[in-house]
Amino acid sequence: STKIVRVKDLLLITPPFTQLNTPYPATAYLKGFLNTKNISAFQVDLGIEVIVELFSARRFSELFDQAEHNNTILSENALRIYALRSEYLKTLEPAIDFLQDKQASLARQICTRNFFPEASRFEQLDDLEWAFGSMGMQDKAKHLATLFLEDLSDFIIECIDPEFGFSRYAERLGRSANSFDELHTHLQGEPSFIDQITLQLLREKLDAHQPKLVCFSVPFPGNLYSAFRCASYLKMYFPTVKIAMGGGFPNTELRSISDPRVFDYFDFITLDDGELPIEQLFHALSDSKTAFKRTFYRSGDDVMYDNSCIKPDYKQAQVGTPDYSDLRLDSYISVIEVANPMHSLWSDGRWNKLTMAHGCYWGKCTFCDISLDYIKLYEPIAAALLVDRMEQLIAQTGETGFHFVDEAAPPALMRSVALEIIRRDLVVTWWTNIRFEKSFTRDLAFLLKESGCIAVSGGLEVASDRLLNLIQKGVTVEQVARVTRNLTEAGIMVHTYLMYGYPTQTEQETIDSLEMVRQLFELGIIQSGFWHQFALTAHSPVGLDPDSYGIVPEKSEITFANNDVQFVDSTGIDHSKFSFGLKKSLYNYMHGIGFELPLHAWFEFKVPRTTVSKSYIEKCLEDELLPLMKPSSKPIWLGGEPILESFTKSKRGNSWEMLRLSIHTKSDFIELELPKDEGTWFVSQLNKLKVSSLPRPTMADLKTDFEERLEDFELFWYSKSLLELRDLGLLLS
After folding, report:
1. What is the C-alpha separation between 668 and 727, in angstroms, rounded?
2. Residue 528 in contact with residue 493, Cβ under 8 Å?
3. How far apart are the C-alpha atoms of 553 and 540, rounded to whole Å?
4. CB of 498 closer than 8 Å to CB of 533
5. pLDDT (0 to 100) of residue 617
6. Backbone phi, then psi, for 546, in 5-degree steps?
7. H/E element holding 434?
8. Who contacts 503 (Cβ-Cβ below 8 Å, separation ≥6)?
């Protein structure tokens, strides 16, 4: 058969592996930008294509044969999987189809526990049965299918390729690799079974599109090796094609690169925002005088850095809408690995990825790489343009779920986006990362929920006010408690990032931090969390000025990657010993158990008693003052039209006219009774307070209008009847 060739200027590649359930968005962002410049591009997520090919019956049959031929089937678990290979091959493709949402009816059969062959991963199932007890059948079947794939992954790692992982490949070769030596040596070896699949798929794309420039997006250490393996293949078989690398890994790790051997594989490495650097590289293919933007290349035996292009980077309004065409959106696999509600969002379901703002509006946290442009240069997008892009992506992908991948979404912009979504009657589901700052009032939380927000993640980091101040987080534990309560009461799930081992942190502060976390979970105002140990990065304020934080970095010669830095803390504490106890306690707290246990029960060594009052978080919530009514605030009415009924009320010979307002909500019904003149005035304002009404009146406008006819507006606004309406959709924005 004749191969179809559709020549493209550029081939944009995400190498194996990133996510199973949704495309990493970098190439879609770049393709959307290139569309605005009439530069033709084809994009491919080699990761998902390799996974789908690898987990086909044909390929896995070859894999079983190779394992037997190499005589690597040694453990009892691997022997069991091999002995049941015909059952695995029979159910492998149905499992993939089910996880791609193509065979939903399989759920009942999977849940009988007599569909998949079961190896060691299923041994944990009895322990997890309680955690998944409330799950629906589809989710439970997804979890069983995930365990089935993880058993096969264990077989691959033991018998075929120890570097394999579903969302990473040969990650250790890219992590803290100050020298290029180990990765370079590994690349001299024969391609692995997985490499062979990767390179075959790469060859098909190259033959089909014949690009002039191939651009690899490398966000993580776990897809660095595959990028180099692909680049090596290109150099050997397509020597005229130019090759570039960009993305999160080079942006943070390769800013000090000096080893010329790297450029035996790549012609160019670009830093930070990729739009202008790639545009300049494309023009340089036909005009050697083109100036580069933030680009490394080799000249002789020297690594050169060229940033001579004087054009400014494109504004967010100029970069176009992400374009997901070319990507095999129906091939992505939704998995449910663990009973962590936020982690399931990351791994289950297809999400369109967008950014509300470039960079971080806070930009002060001392553990973060805030010296780098992709965080330092803050630029939000206009809400109307952002929602335009959401509608375009819905039309293109058919998906209405959005993950805003911001460093921290700005609350003012989130409010504007929520209002725009509601104004357009869009039905979408979205989630994002935030800072737990006081702007997230009860009213804003309810507005976000109404627009489709289902979850937020944010950093509590170390639940200690001294350390939060040292981190320059700009929040307190008390503030975090109030914000998470507001979000939870609105029905928005809250996930918090937790940190231990920050410079100068004492054992007492670690235990006190755990007590704060225990109380937050016990009160139900946080639903999900994850502990990680502090890591020192070269481009953070701590890394740039370690003396001020009481640490001594271990210096080494940097010729390749430079980000994670080993260090010695002046406290001398081995923080890693807390890891197991912190994670075990959190796992239990997430599932509503273990709150009554003393904190020392989670650790196998002696720890100090907590100094935090058992009711500390509860008291934070009780002591909250009523918010002041700002004259510039704009009320919003999200409820429906009230049904009105006039009636007369009498008491001790006096009678007066009243107005009854009957209001139906999606889940409730309420009746309010107001003096008729006040009720009539209020009903006359409701249409003006709808999101679709522009401009909406401010509180000052309402007060003036009210007091021209009636008396005390504050007394009316804070009356019992109006406070009841606050729960039905009368909000302040």
Report:
1. 10
2. yes
3. 13
4. no
5. 94
6. -65, -30
7. strand 429-434
8. 470, 534, 542, 549, 550, 551, 569, 570
**Which amino acid belongs to residue 143?**
H
The tens digit of pLDDT for each residue in 188-233 reads: 999 999 999 999 999 999 999 999 999 999 999 999 999 999 999 9
Q: What is the mean pLDDT of residues 328-357?
A: 83
Report the 10 Å Cβ neighbour count for 223. Answer: 28
Query: Where in 489-566 does DSSP place strands (E)?
Result: 493-500, 528-533, 536-537, 551-553, 564-565
Question: Which band of pLDDT confidence, cut at 50, 70 and 90, is reported for residue 127?
Answer: low
Q: What is the mean pLDDT of residues 95-123?
A: 93
Q: Which two tokens stand for residue 309?
A: 């292009």
Query: Are the C-beta atoms of 328 and 46 separated by less than 8 Å?
Result: no
Tell me the per-residue pLDDT of 644-695, one tens digit each, with 9 for 90 and over.
999 998 888 889 899 999 988 887 888 889 999 999 999 999 989 999 888 8
**Percent of the chain, pLDDT > 70?**
97
**Chain centre to alpha carbon of residue 5:** 36
Mean pLDDT estimate for the chain: 91
CB neighbour list of residue 176: distance below 8 Å, 6 or more residues apart: 561, 563, 564, 566
pLDDT of the residue at 654: 87
Which pairing describes strands 564-565 and 429-434: parallel, antiparallel, or unpaired?
A: unpaired
Residue 76: how many CB atoms within 10 A of its CB?
A: 8
CB 229 within 8 A of CB 248: no
Question: Under a CB-based contact definition with an 8 Å cutoff, are residues 79 and 48 in contact?
Answer: no
Q: Which two tokens stand for residue 188?
A: 């001299």
Instruction: Kindly indicate the confidence band of residue 129, based on its pLDDT and cuts at 50, 70 and 90.
Output: low
Q: Are 116 and 145 in contact (CB under 8 A)?
A: yes
Do the strands 295-299 and 168-169 form a parallel or antiparallel pair, or are they unpaired?
A: unpaired
* Mode of pairing for the β-strands spanning 654-664 and 643-651: antiparallel
Say if CB 498 and CB 531 are below 8 A apart.
Answer: yes
Position 105: which residue type? S
The reply to whether omega before 220 is within 30° of 0 (cis) is no
Token readout for 394 is 């819905």
Amino acid in position 163: E
Helices marked H in 273-382? 275-284, 341-347, 373-376
- Encoded tokens for 531: 């502990």
With 0-12 / 13-18 / 19 or more C-beta atoms within 10 angstroms meaning exposed / middle / buried, residue 442 is buried
Say if residue 245's pLDDT is above 70: yes
Q: What is the pLDDT of residues 690-702, one digit of tens each?
A: 998 888 999 999 9
Judge whether 694 and 416 are in contact, CB under 8 Å: no
Is-cis flag, bond preceding 695, omega within 30? yes
75-87 tens-digit pLDDT: 999 999 999 999 9
> Rounded mean pLDDT of 248-265?
94
d(CA 483, CA 610): 24
Distance CA(689)–CA(686), nearest Å, equals: 5
CB 456 within 8 A of CB 492: yes
Q: What are phi and psi of 656, to 5 degrees?
A: -150, 155
Q: Tell me the C-alpha distance between 338 and 439, whole Å.
A: 32
DSSP letter assigned to residue 102: S
Report the DSSP pairing between strands 379-380 and 669-675: unpaired
pLDDT (mean) for 161-175: 85
CA–CA distance, 382 with 600 (Å, rounded to integer): 50
CA pair distance 570, 92, nearest whole angstrom: 53
For the stretch 497-523, what's the b/e string if a residue is b when 16 or more beta carbons lie within 10 angstroms of its beta carbon? ebbbbbbebebebbbbbbbbbbbbbbb
The percent of residues in the chain predicted with pLDDT above 90, rounded, is: 69
